[in-house]
Amino acid sequence: MYPHEYPGALWYDQEEVDAVSKVISNKSPFRYYGVKCDKEVFNFEKELGEYLSTSSLSNKNQHNKVYVTAVNSGTGALEIALDVLGVGSGDEVIVPGFMWISSISAIIRSRAIPVLVDSDQTLGVDPEDLKVKISERTKVIMVVPMLGGSSKIGEIMEVVRNVNNSRKKDNLSKIFVLEDCAQSLGAHAFGIPGSSQASLPEGCYKLGTFGDIGTFSLQLNKDITAGEGGMVVTRDKELNDRVDALHNAGYIKKEKNNINWYGDIPYGWGHGRRMSELQGAVARVQLKKLDSILDNIRKNHSFFEEFFKKQGIKLRKRAYQNNPGDTGYYLCFHLPENLDDNTAISKGREIAKDLKDKGFNVWFLHDFEVHIYYNIEPLVKKFPMNDGSPWEDPKNSFHTQYKYDRGALPNLDHLLIRTIGLNMPSKMSDNTRDNMMNDLLVTLKNLY
Ligand SMILES: Cc1ncc(COP(=O)(O)O)c(C=O)c1O
Fold it and tell me: With 70 as the cut, is the pLDDT of residue 60 above it?
């Protein structure tokens, strides 16, 4: 078996053990108070905010504050984000067809209708199709950079700013951008943050900080992990106050001068989404390791990129060709373009199976479970919630124009049956890398 796709967990060592032990010894696992609460979650929020507000390439000393609220999962982060942005019945939320089921379930739970947007060659949101999919009902555009690939967020923000400018003239409400960056913590991109006006100069910024809100996950398969966990980030202080309140039963808890144990100021009906000090302590240690983890993944990615190029095999297109901001978590290679659909599917399955049998962490994207819109049965069949929402809600009667079976997104469909994703380990000896390369060569020679 080649190394697992658990980047953060494979970097666990005595530091994480000590951090957790301290919380236990202090008998203080709750974020706001305890016998001796060291405010691990609070400090994690502060440190992640600093990390996200500096780019690895430029704008290093720029003042561009990012607020962070730590929560207990990436799914919860999405649910809170949509709630804070005021999404409800009658609204459309634009979402890519390559994501994770939580991106969709959060929309359904908010009682809004998901509208699928197609992908371009990067496997991310296609800015051109986005222009077509925006309607008067669009409330939020969810961008989901997948497998560590940076999205064309700069172009997407440009599209949204233009649309928002004309909506303002027509007295229509603003469209928000929500970046679901569960799979791309540490990736960066180029462009201008801000969905209604440019809030900073053009430059290089971390993914998750371009739109109104960004969300992240600390689940096991992510760049860093606390087993479970999530984060909601924003540059907007007012939005941050609402996120802060809604993750904590609806109340803002000020650090100083708080009267009640749960908080001081009621904002609305809340969620139970606080992160524990145990998670916070581990997350703080992991955050310090993030750039080293990504350096290693990127090195291995470049090595295999060269290997595939030598074989004449086409790779997933990067959003920023000359200055990639991807984390490189997966390397995606394409099957020959001239294959018809059925041959592509059987060949893709055969290659993926052969590589899995050899111990690779690999996915044929067409079969990548509920990362793919047409594999999500509850979406295709429009499963309702207890009250019939969102499909039976009279305010959502327009949903009949939207279908979610395969065929809804022609460009993405074409790519999915011609793409194989290979996990790039963050820890791998030269020997393992050579063995992987030799095994790959045999598979490609026999089956490609
Ligand atoms: C793109 C994406 N969004 C959301 C999530 C949900 O995160 P979590 O598992 O922490 O709830 C995940 C990961 O599982 C993900 O990959």
Answer: no
Separation of CA 94 and ligand 1 centre (Å): 17
For 154-197, the pLDDT digits (tens) are 999 999 999 999 999 999 999 999 999 999 999 999 999 999 98
Q: For domain 290-369+412-447, which CATH number applies: 3.90.470.20, 3.90.1150.10, 3.30.420.40, 3.40.50.970?
A: 3.90.1150.10
Q: Report helix, strand or coil for 114.
A: strand
Phi (first) and psi of residue 217, to 5 degrees? -135, 150
Query: What's residue 270's pLDDT?
Result: 94
Write down the domain spans for the chain. Answer: 9-285+371-386, 290-369+412-447
- HSE at residue 186, side-chain half, CA atoms within 13 A, is 25
Name the residue of 100, 178, 273 whose CB sits within 8 Å of the most ligand 1 atoms, as the mutation to test its pocket: 100
Percent of the chain with pLDDT over 90: 88
How many CB atoms within 10 Å of residue 247?
A: 26
Distance of CA 408 to the CA centre of its chain: 22
Task: Write the pLDDT tens digit of every residue in 3-52.
Answer: 888 999 999 999 999 999 999 999 999 998 899 999 999 999 999 999 99
> What would the pLDDT profile of 323-382 be if each residue is shown by its tens digit?
789 999 999 999 999 999 999 999 999 999 999 999 999 999 999 999 999 999 999 999
Measure the CA–CA gap between 255 and 444, rounded to whole angstroms: 58
pLDDT number for residue 261: 62
Interhelix angle for 40-52 vs 277-310, to 10°? 30
Give residue 63's pLDDT. Answer: 53
- 112-128 exposure pattern, b = at least 16 Cβ within 10 A, e = fewer: bbbbbbbbbebbbbbbe
Q: Ligand 1 pocket test: which of 5, 183, 329 has the largest number of ligand atoms within 8 Å of its C-beta?
A: 183
Nearest protein CA to atom 10 of ligand 1, as residue = 74
pLDDT confidence band for 265 (50 / 70 / 90): confident
Nearest CA to ligand 1 atom 7: 74
CATH topology of domain 9-285+371-386: Aspartate Aminotransferase; domain 2 (3.40.640)
- The sign of the torsion formed by the CA atoms of 315, 316, 321, 325 equals negative
* Cβ–Cβ under 8 Å, residues 103 and 217: no
